[in-house]
Write a structure and sequence with these properties.
209 residues, alpha/beta, Rossmann fold, 6 strands, 14% strand, binds adenosine-5'-triphosphate, binds magnesium ion
Length: 209
């Protein structure tokens, strides 16, 4: 029997935060679409039993504007491992994993396969305080915090960035503003994606290369 030799590398990136509603699913999809627009082969794995991205994809299909990326459902550790292995064998360029809030089994499984963890958070002092348990969970894994859904009028992002960086935490240079168009995007194929998600995709590619 001849073993298959896989030459290309598949970068495995997950959006992770034990806190709910911080933008994991939205960032997963918009970043995936930005990478697809760049011509990369991207697989999205929806590892959240809430299935936000699977529902988004079905709604977009029903609306006649299917997403430009396939959403695979992997709501159990076994499915997640199988899907990551399949993506590697298919020589996908990038796998983006949307994880559930809390710390269920699937999150434990995700941290064993990822090359890069991205932790989305709002920028208030209370939001930053909630980030530490997730950063502890990710100890030893390349990780960056992504400041998300920022109100342009507040200066909290600068304070948050310096608080995190002074504790040795990497913070993505790209910060994502609060946008009504993003909030309304569920069930649509939001392409071309806003430039800010393309900038985040650049940073992700740089971080995993
Ligand atoms: N940049 C943004 N501007 C405005 N609204 C946003 C932005 N990013 C996310 N949202 C909104 O914030 C809410 C939470 O986002 P999302 O569902 O992506 O978070 P989540 O972390 O995946 O949540 P959960 O933990 O429940 O899975 C949604 O209503 C979404 O539309
Ligand atoms: Mg989600």
């Amino acid at each position: 029997m001849c073993a298959r030799i896989v030459v290309a590398t598949t970068d495995i990136v997950a959006f992770i935060h034990s806190k709910g509603g911080v933008g994991k699913s939205t960032l997963t999809l918009f970043t995936a679409l930005a990478l697809v627009e760049r011509g990369l082969t991207v697989q999205v794995l929806d590892a959240d039993p809430q299935a936000s991205l699977a529902h988004w994809s079905h709604a977009a299909d029903r609306a006649g504007e299917p997403l430009a990326v396939h959403i695979g459902s992997t709501p159990s550790p076994r499915f997640l491992h199988e899907a990551v292995t399949a993506a590697r064998e298919a020589e996908a360029d990038v796998v983006l994993i949307d994880t559930p809030p809390g710390t269920p089994d699937v999150l434990d499984a995700a941290v064993t396969v990822i090359d890069l963890a991205l932790v989305p958070t709002a920028a208030s002092p209370m939001d930053i305080d909630r980030v530490w348990p997730t950063l502890d969970l990710l100890a030893g894994i390349p990780t960056a915090v992504v400041l998300n859904a920022l109100d342009a009028r507040e200066a909290a992002a600068t304070v948050a960035k310096s608080t995190l960086e002074s504790a040795g935490v990497t913070v993505a240079d790209t910060t994502i503003p609060m946008r009504a168009s993003v909030r309304r995007a569920f069930g649509t194929n939001p392409t071309p994606v806003p430039a800010v998600y393309r900038e985040l995709a650049d940073e992700i590619q740089e971080a995993v290369s």
